[in-house]
Design goal:
Length: 638
């Protein structure tokens, strides 16, 4: 161990600081000191009388210990046992360079520690003071955290493993495109990393070792194709990130890992897993006292490398310990805060990522429809459309998707635009459809997102579409139009649709939070979507600000949004009418219009549906002229 290092064992009284401290000092062959021995007599008398110390009492005591730490640091180092419950106490004790101080927090439940205190003899600390200690405790953020419900030998081995400079801070399994990019990101933040990739003869051979060789500018990475050696290379409690394909591969990797893991280890699933599968995995691993974080990651290959948006959900204990890695590699918002936050319990992280992808599906389809009507109705070239999109960006509609669409339209292959050579058959990985299914289960309207999924499905039947076009021989029409007026209306329609789409996505998040009791912070979710992710935009920044103190308010009801919608909704209706009349399919633009007109109508057509349901199925109905809790049935034939 480094000469002069001070190891401070801290936690509430009864957590075993003295016992663990003495044992660790013996293992490291350095002196042990107990902070209690430095209390002035007045403090001891006060505690013996059953009264807790206040900050005024503690100040001279902490300053005295801080002076001693300077002396120990110039010698061979030391182990100190000290309660250090508050961050400001710990800051006072850091009287030397932080690199020479190792904080080790002993974590235990109130009941466990209370039982230990009851068994103590001849000690001035009483059980009645334990409550105040737990109330004062400010848990660690980046310190070594050790659970105390195990033998002293296991505790010491776990501490030594964590302190061992030959071990890695975390491990990553799966070196596909995203896995490699995240690994490089972690290395750029100076974390010591172990990576693992399976070995498959003639298919996946020495993937991890080759990747390590490519990182010639760092010596903080080791690679494995042996899973046990990979796990053994990690400091305990371990943090292991999985970057493997969602579905069965995740379960297979977890099953392979389990024989080598220990209690309190943490697994982070960084793939696009279904939130219900994440919930099941969390429960299964919790039974083995292993933590699980279902973590959505958005940003693609570039985001993974330079800083994605990260949405972890699951064990709060695991996030408090392992979240530092995720926060470090995430993108930063305008205030330089990490675009990573603890989302909530269970499968909430992957649910939020699923909704993110649903919003993304609709935004992509909106852009596709906008391009299509500009190209084939307004007769604009890809270059002209790119210029139009850039003007919208400059007008305040800046978004990542609008920017990349503007860029891709300029790509040529020879004398042709590459966009004209791409088959109009859209692929998908299922997350958009998952959003639709979740909305159906929760009873939330999701038209823009659902229609974008359906549009991809219809695009997939290319050969049948060709045959239908030959049979029907419909053609699109383009009348003489006023360019300036049309493009202005289209810009307004684009903005209105995007607002409606985001409103719909956040409605799904709000409902899931209430039904599943996740207590989602919608403003914070929007904030971490302002950079790094695919749907980052100026609009997202506005949403984050609007929701900051109004978590329960629907987006379309904010005065600022109402003003914008009133200025743009007529243009949206005009564009949809014009496009449909001219023979163009505008699925998301149409869905947004229909949703908004229904959402803003005090009287809808649903009374006819209720009458129909009662007519053929005696499902009953409510009346506008009767109390809301009364239901009626009518014999409609008489």
């Amino acid at each position: 161990m480094n000469k002069g290092v001070i190891y401070i064992i801290y936690g509430v009284s009864g957590s075993g600081k003295t016992t663990v401290g003495r044992a660790l000092a013996g293992e490291l062959n350095i002196p042990f000191f107990d902070a209690d021995d430095f209390h002035p007599e007045a403090n001891i008398q006060k505690m013996s009388a059953g009264s807790p110390l206040n900050d005024i009492d503690r100040e001279p005591w902490l300053q005295k210990i801080a002076t001693e730490i300077i002396n120990w640091n110039t010698d061979k180092g030391a182990v100190l046992a000290c309660s250090a419950l508050k961050k400001k106490y710990r800051k006072t004790l850091e009287s030397i360079d932080k690199q020479y101080v190792k904080w080790i927090f002993l974590d235990g439940s109130f009941d466990l520690i209370a039982s230990r205190l009851e068994a103590r003899e001849n000690h001035f600390f009483k059980k009645t003071m334990l409550t105040s200690q737990f109330e004062s405790l400010e848990p660690p953020e980046n310190d070594i955290l050790i659970k105390i419900d195990k033998s002293i030998d296991k505790i010491i081995n776990e501490i030594k493993s964590t302190l061992d400079t030959d071990t890695s801070e975390l491990g990553l399994i799966g070196l596909g495109v995203m896995g490699k990019s995240l690994a490089k990101n972690l290395l750029s933040k100076d974390f010591k990393l172990s990576v693992y990739n399976r070995h498959v003869d003639q298919i996946e051979v020495d993937v991890a070792k080759k990747f390590v060789l490519e990182q010639s500018d760092t010596d903080t990475i080791v690679g494995f194709d042996d899973l046990k050696k990979f796990v053994d290379s990690l400091a305990q409690p371990r943090t292991i990130m999985l970057m493997v394909n969602a579905g069965k591969p995740v379960d297979l990797v977890i099953d392979e890992l389990l024989p080598y893991l220990s209690e309190e280890d943490c697994i982070i699933d960084g793939g696009n897993s279904h939130y219900k599968a994440t919930l099941e995995r969390s429960k299964r691993l919790a039974e083995k006292r292993i933590h699980f974080l279902g973590t959505g990651i958005s940003g693609g290959e570039e985001g993974a490398l330079k800083g994605p948006s990260i949405m972890p959900g699951g064990s709060k204990t695991a996030y408090n310990r392992s979240g530092k890695y995720l926060e470090a590699i995430a993108a930063k918002d305008k205030k330089k805060n990490s675009c990573c936050t603890y989302i909530g319990p269970e499968g909430s992280g992957h649910f939020v990522k699923m909704v993110h992808n649903g919003i993304e599906y609709a935004e992509m389809q909106l852009l596709a429809e906008t391009y299509h009507i500009l190209r084939f109705y307004a007769g604009k070239t890809p270059v002209q459309i790119s210029n139009i999109f850039n003007s919208w960006i400059n007008n305040g509609l800046k978004s990542y998707l609008l920017e990349i669409t503007s860029d891709l339209l300029l790509k040529t292959e020879g004398k042709d635009f590459l966009i004209d050579k791409i088959l109009d058959k859209a692929g998908q990985k299922g997350t958009g459809g998952w959003s639709t299914n979740a909305a159906l289960e929760l009873g939330v309207a999701l038209p823009t997102i659902s229609e974008s999924v359906m549009a991809r499905n219809v695009s997939g039947i290319k050969s049948e579409r060709i045959k239908a076009s030959e049979i029907y021989q419909f053609s699109t029409s383009s009348n003489s139009i006023d360019d300036t007026s049309f493009i202005s209306d289209l810009e307004k329609a684009f903005l209105a649709t995007s607002i409606i789409n985001h409103h719909i996505g956040f409605k799904l998040l709000k409902e899931s939070s209430e039904v599943y009791k996740w207590q989602l912070n919608l403003s914070e979710i929007a904030r971490i979507w302002t950079n790094g992710c695919i749907i980052r935009s100026n609009l997202m920044e506005q949403i984050s600000s609007l929701l900051l103190d109004n978590n329960d308010t629907s987006l379309l009801l904010f005065p600022e949004i109402v003003k914008t919608m009133k200025s743009n909704i007529n243009s949206l209706s005009e564009i949809v009418g014009t496009g449909l009349t001219a023979g163009f399919s505008l699925t998301v633009l149409s869905a947004a219009t229909n949703y908004f007109l229904t959402y803003t109508s005090a009287q809808s057509s649903a009374n006819i549906i209720q009458a129909q349901r009662d007519y053929f199925g005696a499902h009953t109905y409510q009346r506008v002229d009767k109390p809301i809790d009364e239901y009626f049935h009518t014999n409609w034939k008489n």
